[in-house]
Amino acid sequence: MLTVLIVNDQELRRLGYRLLLDCEPDLSPVGEAGDGAEAVRTATVLRPDIVLIDILKPSSDWIDTIGRLARCDSPPRPRILVLTPVGLDEYVWAALAAGADALLPENTAPHELTAAIRAVAAGGAVITPELTCRLIDTVRRRPSASATPAAQRLGTLTERERQVLATVARGWSTTEIAEHLSIAPTTVKSHVGRILTKIGARSRVQAVAFAYQAGLTAPHTTRSPLPSPGRGDVAR
To answer: I want to staple 235 with a disulfide (CB 3.0 to 4.6 A). Which of 22, 107, 183, 221 is the partner?
Structure first.
C-alpha cells in the first residue's frame, strides 16, 4: 500500500484528492496539510511514500517547503509530486531545482495522476512533454552565466556517462538506452546513479534540466535517435 500526504491550501480540494485516492486499492491518503510548515511536520511524523503538492498560488515559501521535504534527514525520504499552475514557467523550474521528483500540470486527469503516483513511488521520474518544452524554454531564457557551473559539472562525466545522460534527456527508458548502447539495464541504472551524484541531481527529471542547461542536448530533440557508439567505445 502506497501512502500519500496531500498538501493543498484549500480544504475542498484536499477532500477531492482524498476521495480519489480512497477509490484506489493500492493508494492510501494518510494525512493532509494546508500549509508548508504543516506539510513538513506531518511528513516527519507519518513518513508517507509520496507527498502530493498542489499549490494554487505559488510563492517562495512553497518552494522552500519542497526543498525541506527533499532534504529530509530521516530516511526514507518521501517522493515529491508537484502539480504546477499553467503559465508559471519559473515556478516549474524552481520546484524542480528545489527537489521535486515529478511535475504534472494542475489540469492532469485523475487516472493520469494516480498512475504518476505509482510511477514516482517506484523510483521513476514523471514530467509531461508539455512541461518539458516549457522547462527547456525557461532554461534557454535564463542568463547565460548560469550555464558555466553546469558545464563544469558536465566535465566530470565520462564519455559513456554523457551518452547515457543524453538519452535520458531525450526521454528514453532504461531498456531503450541499454539496447542502444549494448549494455545491461543494470549497467544503465548504475551509470544514472553516478551521473546524478556527479551533477548534484536528485532524480532523472532534474538530470533532464541539467542536460539542457549544460548544452549537452539541444531543444526539440526529445526521443530523437543518437549516433551509434563507436566500435572502440567500451561501457564504463
So the answer is: 183
